Amino acid sequence: MIDLYYWPTPNGHKITLFLEETGLAYTIKPVNIGAGEQFAADFLAISPNNRMPAIVDHAPADGGAPVSVFESGAILLYLAEKTGRFLPADLRGRVQTLEWLFWQVGGLGPMLGQNHHFNQYAPERIPYAIDRYTNETRRLYGVLDKRLAGRDFIAGDYSIADMAAYPWIVPHALQKMDLLDFPNVQRWFEAIGARPATAKAYALGPQVNPALGAPLTEDQRRHMFGQPAR
């Protein structure tokens, strides 16, 4: 039913978390971003920003032609509306969930992504950039920790807001964050990690990319970072 264009990155994991929770039938179409497959013409036809994940739904709700969706937040919202799951139906619950979904796609993901880049991948250490993004990461963890005080999950029940945020917290050690400093985040993180669907979703990573975690080659860096407009 669903073709998932995927590589095991935080944004890719968001979608496998949802699909494994709901049991929707899906087929993984690997997009090896280190090999430049995100620039292939057939992929750009469904993901014009040359980023994965993307999906093609071959059984959309209107019964018409297949629907393609790019951008991980848009995909989560599409799938939640398709299945009627992990997005509250009531007005206030829906608003809160979407607020925190967009908080992740607009803030948590981009800022932590820059943290990863300057701490892990940049060819030279730039102290200002490292401090800037490490401090912003710490601030965002603090925002999430406050939100989770007295709550099991970000917006009430487990939702697409949690699925969006969790994969970006998984590499917390690489972000120079200690979850002991954020006890509510730690509790939430452990609860999601214990879900069977989470284990299934993350088991896909090394299956799709057996070299997961290996240092990047110069060719992989060239494909992944600093692409010009073309």
From TrEMBL:
InterPro entries: Glutathione-S-Trfase_C-like, Glutathione-S-Trfase_C_sf, Glutathione_S-Trfase, Glutathione_S-Trfase_N, GST_C, Thioredoxin-like_sf. Residues 1-87 form the GST N-terminal domain. One of its GO terms (molecular function) is transferase activity. It holds the Pfam family GST_C. Residues 90-212 form the GST C-terminal domain. It comes from the Bacteria. Belongs to the GST superfamily. This is Glutathione S-transferase. It comes from Pseudoxanthomonas spadix (strain BD-a59).
